[in-house]
Every structure is written in C-alpha cells, then in structure tokens.
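Board work, copied verbatim: PEGA domain-containing protein
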Amino acid sequence: MKALIVLWITLFIFVGTAPLTGGAEIGPALQGTYWVDVYMNSRDVASLSLTDEGKILAIGGSTIWMMDTDGGIVWAHSIENVTLGELKQTSSGDFIMAGRLIDGSLWIAKIGGDGGIKWGKAYGQTIRGYISISLDSKDNIVVAADVAPRGVWLLKLDRDGCFVWSMTFPGLSSPSLAVDTYGNVLLAGVSEGSLVLLKLTGDGHLAWAKEYLPSQGSGHFVSLAKSSLVDDSGGIVIGGTFVSGFYSNASVLYIDHDGNVKWAKIYGTSSLVRINDLETGSQGEVILGGFVASFMHHPDGWIMELTPGGEVVWSVLLGTEDSAEEILDVVVDSQSNVFASGYKGVRGLIAKLPPYGCLDGCDVIRVRTPSVSSIELESKSIMPAVSREAYIPVKVYYSISLWFPEVSRICEVTLSGKLEVSSEPTDAEVVIQGEYSSYSGTTPLSIEVPAGRYNVSVVKDEYEKYKTTVSVEVGKTESISVTLVPKFGYLNVTSVPVDGEVYVDNYFIGTTPLEEIKLSTGTHELRVKKDGYEEYAEDFEIRPGETTKIHAVLEAKSGNLRVNSTLPGLEVYLDGSYIGTTPIEGYKTSAGKHFLRVLRRGEEVYSGIITIEPGGTTVVHVVFSGSSETSTGTSTESETDSTTSSTGGTSPPGGEICGPGSLIWVLLLLALVRRGRS
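↓ predict structure ↓
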C-alpha cells in the first residue's frame, strides 16, 4: 500500500488529467429501480452475497445484514469483537463468513439465512490483510489470508469448520483464491513484483507452481484481487494492479489449467488504479471492482465489465467531489444486475447498477472508458518455500445484538415505463413476460414495468388467445387495446307457425321465436318440430361474434282425400275452396280436420267435418238415391297400401244420411196405413 501512496503523490506532480475518457455507448437498461445507498453507521461494506431468493447479504465492520433487491433491510445484526471481511454462500443456502478477531486471529463462521450463527471458530495465525475464501463442490472451505510476518496462509476446513490441512508460503502477499470443479486449489499471489500461481490438489499436494514476469522489466505487480475466477476448463482469470513507470493500471490475465498465459491486458494509463474483486456473469463476462485516482481528485470507485476475451463492454466511475470512494466487492444476480459494495469516505456504500452499468440521471455515476493494451509475460516453473502446520480450531463465544442501519440514498433512478392493457370484453387475464421478470393481472390493467421487451398475452374463456410483443421505454407509456375474437356466435330462430320446438345438435334449446342463443363457432345441425308439421332440418354455421338468423317455414303434414258419389259430377268444396267434381281421386291436403261440402247444381247434398290422417287416404262415399236423397260414408286407407282399398263404411257424424224427399215418402206411407185401419 505504501508503494501505491507514493505513486499517487507522484501523480500530483506529473499527471494533469484523468486517464479515463467518456464516449462508451451504453445500451438500454433492462431492470426497474437502481440506487446508491450510503450506510451512515458502517465504515465500509466489505463483501456481498446473493441468496437463492434474490436477497442480498452484506457484511461490513462488525455488522451483518440482509436486504431485498431494492435495498430494504430485512434484518441486521452486530457481532462483538470481530471485523468481518469475506462472505460466500454454500450449496445448502447457508453462508460462510470470515473475519479477524480483536486479537488478530482468523475467525470462520457459518450462518443461516435468518442471521443465526450455526458455528463460529478461531484459527491460529495473526491476520494482517484481507481474507479470501472459496468453497469446493462439497462445501469444504478454503481460506487464504495475508499473515504476519510477510506471507500467505492457506487453510482448508471441512464444511463444519474442522481442520483438514494448512500451509504458509513466506514471501508471498496479496492472495487471490479459487477452487475448480475438481476441487483443485488455485492460489495466486505477489512476490517481489512477480505474479506467482500455485495449483494444489484437494488434499494439499502441490501440482505445479509458476512465476510470471513482465518482459524486459516493463513493470511489476503490486497486488491482486481477493478472488479469481475459474471456468469449466480449469482456466483461471486473475485481476490485479500492475505498475509501469509512474503509472498504476488494472491488469487482467487468463491462464489455462496447465499454467500457460492465453492473454494478459492492462486497462487505463496515467493514473492510480487498483482492482479488489472479480466476479463472473451468466454469459462468462467478467465484472471487476476497485478504484481509480487522478490528479487533484479523490479516488472514485470503479466498476467495469469485460468479455471472456478481455475486451471492455462498459466502464463506470462511482464518486463525488467531497469524499473518496472505493469498490471492495462485486456480485452479479441472475438478471445480470450488478451489486457493488465498498465505502464512501468513512461510511459504507452499496450500489445496484443495471446490466449496462450506466445510470442516466444519477450524478454520482459517470461513464468512463479506459484504454486497453496487451502485456507480454514470461513464465517459469518454481518451487515455492512452504511450511505446513496443524491447527486445532478454538470455539469462540460471541455476542450478537440487533443493529439498526442508518441508510441514506444518494441516488435512485427508476428505469421503467408504464404498460397499459385493455380489452373488449374486459376482465381478461393478462400475462406479461419479460426477459428477467413477469407480471399478471386482468383488464383493464395499468402497471409500471422495467424498460425492455415483453411478450404479452390476453386470455379469456370462450375467446381466442391474443399475443403480441411490445417494447417499453423509460418514462413512456405503451398501450395495448385488443378486441378479443370470440370462440362463439349467436343464433336467432323464427318459424311459421310459431311455438316450434328447436333442437341444436340434438339438444332442445327452446321454442320459437328464439333470440341471441350463444353457440360455439363452427357447423351445427338445426331441427324444428311441431305436431302436425313436417320436421324442419338445416345445417348452419356460427361465425365468431356474428349472429346467424334462420327462418323455418314448417310444412303441415299431409294426407289424401278421395270423394266418390253414385251420381258423378257433384261439386266438392274443402274448407270453402272448390277442389273439383266427383269423382275426386288422391287430392292432397294437410292432415287434420277439414270441412267438406258436396253440391249438386248449387244445392248442398252433403256437409260435414272429416279428418285427414297423415300419410293416409280418407275416402268419402256420397250415395245419391234420387233427386232429393243422398247418403254418405267415409273411410281411411293407409298410404302404404298399394291397393288403396276401402277400410269399411264408417260414416261421418249421423251415420247414413237421408235427404228430405225420403222423409216425406215415409210420412205419407205412415198416413196411408192409419187411414186403412180406420
């Protein structure tokens, strides 16, 4: 650190401007509210960790607290006589935290998501610098720390804090630690300006050790980030501070699993730069945090994203004119938001930044793009000095009390817009699906959403599903108005005569007239029935939202009438209408009762009610017995009887009908009989 202070003072003499220049193009923000909080009663925030539920666990000084993604405090505790420095989450959802006790010894503890400490233990040596921890796939704990006198202490514990192995590497400083998927331990450090990288097996045996020197003495390493990153192939990304001449720059290296340098780059010139932490994102991107200082200006916190190949994606400074800022830890959530912690002056600081880093409208965050150049490193295998020790952990009794953070929000930007969804009809279900978040509700819906692209679907029973994609811009309202296409239509049915029974697809739905009968779209079968009438049948189609109208004219069921007379040529009238002269054969008429009249030369010789049976033939026999006498008889023949033979001599009301002339002859005959007796 002394070398860094000397360099900073030298900059005041030789350097006139800051090395980082504006001009980086920042893409649109993807998530809602972003902020910068200052903790007035905490001197720094040393480390962060994200829970599986998306909450944030933070430690700083002797305090530990949980907060939601908007910075709201869930719980907060203070732990007596310990200075906390590092935090990692286990596969079970618990957390391992490391710190330094008041006597300088190492303290490791496991805590639950509620802040309760499950165990806490102290271990041997005196810690003089920051602490780095890493967990293997079985949640075994590997710890690296600067110890006094100058050296790096590497310690492995099992998941319950029990001692496994320990070794110290004298002459090494500024440890940077990682564990690969096979449980191998990768420890990087600085030794007399060189970068040293050690690979150890899970049981503590040295696999190889290499030293990396800049070619032709072009500079030297002074410190490393506390964490390194290991990819699936076993390659490691190491960040640190590289000094060349009067300038201190950020350096990032990628070294494969055999220790070969694949690329090495430095970022920023003519300034004092330090990297404190590295974090990897979901796409393999590298996020780093530290600080940048320039002539006549306090250090500013620095956060930068690199591609997996080391190219700059974005770079921002976080700082104000009135105090020094430094980023000590960075983490990335599942939505690619960046959380950074550190200090502002003598107070703790936590910031939530969007995936593109920049916050328009937040004065404390500024876009600055560093210059990038490659450096050549020469490597050689070494055999580092090492001493092995065994430690018996000491159970530490600690006191936990409630802590009440005093939080001041110095910046807040809501990168969101409004999305309004309406539908006809209303009360439709709305599902809004973004890349990182989803929402739901019913129409009409008005909701504040983070800026970005969304898939929107509107669903209602008996209506076709509506889907669309919209882009919501910051500070603007995007409106969607949709008329849902129904999966039904309506049916109106009228008939002549009325009161016909209506069946649709063999289901009775009422009697005519019918209006606004809701039916599913598609083809249906209609039948209209009424006694005495032929059944009406029709296939019809229901179109979405439309009304289909059907007018059914029912045809009366019919039978046949045959009128015979002993005297041909008699005039026949049915229900008042002339239908011809006898003999009448197979006159078709509606079934039911009818009024029949038979006339001879305008005089009625017969009248009466007859019944026409459906599908049959009704036969009327008119017997003309003289100029003044007639008699009739009726019969019904089956229409299916091919011979149409008479079924007998059933007669209309009155049976055999006699004319008035016959009655007169009978009366005269009776008068003659009486006269003869007298």
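The helical segments are 2-14, 660-677.
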